[in-house]
Structure formats: structure tokens, C-alpha cells
Design brief:
By secondary structure, the protein is mostly helical. Among the domains are: 41 residues; 51 residues. Helix content is 46%, strand content 7%.
Length: 147
């Protein structure tokens, strides 16, 4: 989000407006939008102040009251998936995997896991490299076969 306009600029615009400069001229001269200027006038009329309103943060996270429990679960079960964590937390709060992932990111808890196939080192999990075999049909066209 961009920074709000400075108090100095706000004061200069309102001073010119109070003197009687038309709104269109103010918008063109100070390179601000007409809607912002009307919002500034409304703010001054309603509150008496021209300071920008404080930035409101988004919604509070649903898991915020359960931070301690989440940290304990992650420490106790480092290999659990997000779905498993959601099931463990279902006794206390109903939460989606997306909300849990966002909350873990907010807590700066990273979970890097090896998948099961790499831990057990089975051959079927590793990608097979394909051999390329060329069979000449003619001097102009070559057919490539993948195995």
C-alpha cells in the first residue's frame, strides 16, 4: 500500500481550497484525484483533523489464540502433513489447511519434509531417464522414439 500524502501537502491543498480555488484546478495542479480531495474535505469536516486515518490491518487469524498448541504440535510431530495437523486441532478449532499454512508462515515455522519414497529410497519413485533412439528413414526425415 502506498504511503499517505504528507500533512504539508494536505494543508497546502486545503488552504488553496479555502481561498476559493476550484476543485478541478487543485486536482490538476497538485496531481491528486478528485475523489481523494473530496475524501480529505470530508475527513476535515467530520473529525476536524487532516491527518491520515490509521491503517487498519486485515482479519485476525483464527489460530492466534491457539499459537502455543500449534507450536507444540509441530514440535511433537515434525513429519505430519497439514491435513494431519488440522485433524489434530479439530478438537479445539475447525480450520482449513490453507489457514494453517498461512498461520505457520506467520509464525515463521518452516517444515521441510522428505517424501516417503525418498526416505525409503525405492526405485519406483525416482524418475526414469528416457533414452532417445533415432531410426533413420530417409536422409530428410528422422523419427525419434522414446523408451
Amino acid at each position: 500500500m502506498p504511503n499517505p500524502y504528507s500533512l504539508d501537502l494536505r494543508a497546502r491543498i486545503l488552504k488553496d481550497y479555502d481561498v476559493g480555488v476550484p476543485v478541478e484546478d487543485l486536482v490538476a495542479h497538485y496531481a491528486v484525484s478528485r475523489s481523494w480531495l473530496y475524501s480529505l474535505l470530508q475527513l476535515r469536516r467530520e473529525t476536524g483533523s487532516i491527518a491520515p486515518r490509521p491503517h487498519r490491518r486485515g482479519r485476525k487469524q483464527k489460530l492466534a489464540p491457539f499459537e502455543k498448541e500449534v507450536r507444540q504440535l509441530v514440535a511433537a510431530h515434525p513429519d505430519a502433513t497439514l491435513v494431519e495437523f488440522c485433524e489434530m486441532l479439530s478438537k479445539q478449532v475447525s480450520v482449513s489447511t490453507t489457514a494453517l499454512c498461512d498461520f505457520l508462515r506467520h509464525l515463521k515455522i518452516t517444515r521441510k519434509k522428505d517424501s516417503l519414497c525418498y526416505r525409503t529410497a525405492t526405485k519406483r519413485c525416482h524418475r526414469k531417464t528416457r533414452r532417445v533412439e533415432e531410426t533413420p528413414r530417409s536422409h530428410r526425415h528422422r523419427k525419434i522414439r522414446f523408451h
